[in-house]
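pinging the channel bc i need a second pair of eyes. not urgent but kinda urgent?? the chain im working w is below, pasted from the shared doc
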Amino acid sequence: MDLATAASWWDLHNERYLSQLREFLSFQSISTDPAFKPACGQCAKWVCSHLESIGFQSELKQTETLPVVFARYRVSSTAPTVVVYGHYDVQPPGDLSDWTTPPFEPHVRDGRIYARGAVDNKGQLFFVIKALENLIAHKALTCNITLVVEGEEESGSGGLSAKLPEWKNELAGDVLLVCDTGMPSGKPTIMVGLRGIAGLTFELHGPARELHSGYHGNLAKNPALHLAKILAAMTNADGSVAVPGFYDGIAPIDDSLRALINSQPFDPIAYEQETGCPPTGGEATYPIAERVGLRPSIDIHGILSGYAGPGIKTIVPPWARATLSIRLVLGQSSQGILDSLEDFMRERTPTGMRLKIIERDFGGPALLVSP
C-alpha cells in the first residue's frame, strides 16, 4: 500500500479515529493505585473489543493482578510473525492544579491532544492499532500479528512477568516491536536500545515523634537534613555518580554505534523551550546523545518529611523518605548497584539514626540490538 492511499484513508477516517482515541484516553487506568483497578479492567475490555472490531481475534488473559489483552491476526502459516507490545495503564496525574484541562478529559490544543496517557502509552499504541486497521482493510498486511497490551507497565509488570513462562509458545514470533518510545527531533524513529531501570525507596528515622525545634534543635538529629546530605553525596560536581561500583561492568560500545547515536540531531534550544530547563544534567564529559542513550543515571523522584504547608510548624521531623531510580546500561547489574547504593547510604547514616529500606524494585535490564 502506498503512502497516498494511506493518507487518503486517514483523511476519510480521522474524525472517527480521534473520537475513539478520546474514548481510550478517558479511562482512568492508573495501575499504581488499587483504587483504580476497576477502571483498568474497563479499559482492558475496551481495547479487547476494539481490536475485535477491526478484525483481530482478541481475548483478555487474566493474571494475579490486572488483565492482559491478547490479540492475533493471521495472514498465513508461512508468513513471519510480528509481536507488538504496548500498555493501557498510565501514570498517576499528580497535582490536578498543574493541568490546564482535566487529565482524563482529552482536549486538542494547537494540533496536540492533551490527556494522561496521550503520549505514554495510549497514543503510540493507538497509532499502531490504526495503522494495522488500515493495512487489514486494504488486505495489505503481509505478516502475522500478535498484539500484547498489558496493564501494569507503570507499576512493574508483575502480572505479565509471572505469566510469561506459561504463555511462551503463544508469544513466539520473529520480531518484537515495542511501541512505547518517542520521536527525537519529531521524526519517526526506530529505537535499537533502551536503558533498564531499578528503583529504591528508603527512609531515615530519628526521633520517636515530632520534636519542638525550640527545645530539641541542636540536640536531636534532623532526618530531613541528613537525608538531604546522603542524596547530595550520590553525585560528583561533574554530574557523575559517586556511589562506588556504580559504573562496574558497563559493556563497551562499538565505535560505529556511538558515531550513529552522536550523529542524530538535537536542538538544545528547542529542548529548553519544551521542558523549561537546558539539557545540562548528567556527566558533563559526555555528549548529550550518549548521556541519554549510553550512560547510566540516578534520579530522585520524591522527598517527603515533616510539614510543608502554609506557615511554619517548628519541628524536628521523626523521619524522612526519598524515592529514586537508576537507569541502567548494558552490562550493569541492578542487584549489585542496589546493594552498593544501600551500603553507601548505611555508611552515611549518622549514629543515633536508622536507615529503613521500604522498597527495592528491579524493573528490567538494558537492551541493545544491532542497528
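so The chain has two domains: 3-180, 194-368. and The two ends are 25 Å apart (CA to CA). — does that match what u expected or am i reading it wrong
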